[in-house]
What does this fold into?
Amino acid sequence: MEKKAKEKKEKQKSFVYILRCADDTLYTGYTTSLDRRLKEHQMGSKKCKYTMAKIRRPVALVIAWEIEGTRGNALRIEAFIKTLTRKKKNELISNPDQLKKLFTVKSGDVIECIKV
It folds into this structure.
């Protein structure tokens, strides 16, 4: 019984997102609740160290992807995007489906862009 609950939790929807901060920097993050996380960034919550500084707020959601599958894959996608240069991130923002080509997801996970 515990194994099924663990598998269900592991296969929850996750979001990888990019914010444009007031100082024109880009921040990439991961969450399971996009609305909650955006509110935390806007409020300057201590949970959001990068956007906690007033100079970075307000933030604007530029793009988000819904990742259906394991949390681990969503975190790998977030880490991958964080390694990209600003130029590559802007290209990804302009062409969000490019993420599917740049990052190969295993185990049948689905990457879908959310229009913002």
User: Anything to note?
Assistant: The radius of gyration is 15 Å. Strands lie at 13-20, 26-31, 60-68, 110-114. The mean pLDDT is 86. The domain at 2-114 is CATH 3.40.1440.10 (GIY-YIG endonuclease).
